[in-house]
Design goal:
Low-confidence stretches: none
CATH class: Alpha Beta
Distance between the termini: 37 Å
Strand content: over 45%
Strand order of the largest sheet: 1-3-2
Helix content: 10-25%
Structural class: mainly beta
Number of strands: 5
CATH superfamily: Gamma-glutamyl cyclotransferase-like
CATH architecture: Roll
Oligomer: single chain
Shape: globular
Number of domains: 1
C-alpha cells in the first residue's frame, strides 16, 4: 500500500528542511493538497490543529518507510503524526498535528 505525507509547514519543498534532514530522496512530490483543520502561528513555524477550516499543503508519496522515524524525531513531542482523509485529493495521508490540545485555542 502506498503511503503519503501531507506537509504544510517546514516539511514543504520550499523550506529546504527535507534536504537538511536527508530525506528528500525518500519522498516524491505529488502535488498540492488540502487538509481539514486550521493553522496556528507558533512563531518560527505553523502548527496544524483540529477544527473547521482548510489548510493548503503539499502531498508526497513515501518512497522509503525509513523516512518516518526521521520525521517523527524532527517533529518531536510537540507534534503527533496522524493519518487523515484529505479534502483534496480525497485520499488518506499522514500529517503532523500539534500534540497539545490547548493549542487549539491559540490564534
Amino acid at each position: 500500500m502506498t503511503e503519503h505525507l501531507a506537509a504544510y509547514g517546514t516539511l514543504k519543498q520550499s523550506s529546504g528542511q527535507q534536504q537538511d534532514l536527508g530525506v528528500a530522496h525518500m519522498l516524491r512530490f505529488v502535488g498540492p493538497c488540502t487538509l481539514p483543520g486550521r493553522l496556528i502561528n507558533l512563531g518560527a513555524y505553523p502548527a496544524l490543529v483540529k477544527g473547521e477550516g482548510r489548510v493548503e499543503a503539499e502531498l508526497f508519496q513515501v518512497l522509503n518507510p525509513a523516512v518516518w522515524p526521521i520525521l517523527d524525531a524532527y517533529e518531536g513531542d510537540e507534534y503527533t503524526r496522524i493519518k487523515i482523509q484529505l479534502l483534496a485529493p480525497p485520499i488518506y495521508a499522514w500529517t503532523y498535528f500539534h500534540a497539545d490540545p490547548a493549542a487549539e485555542d491559540l490564534s
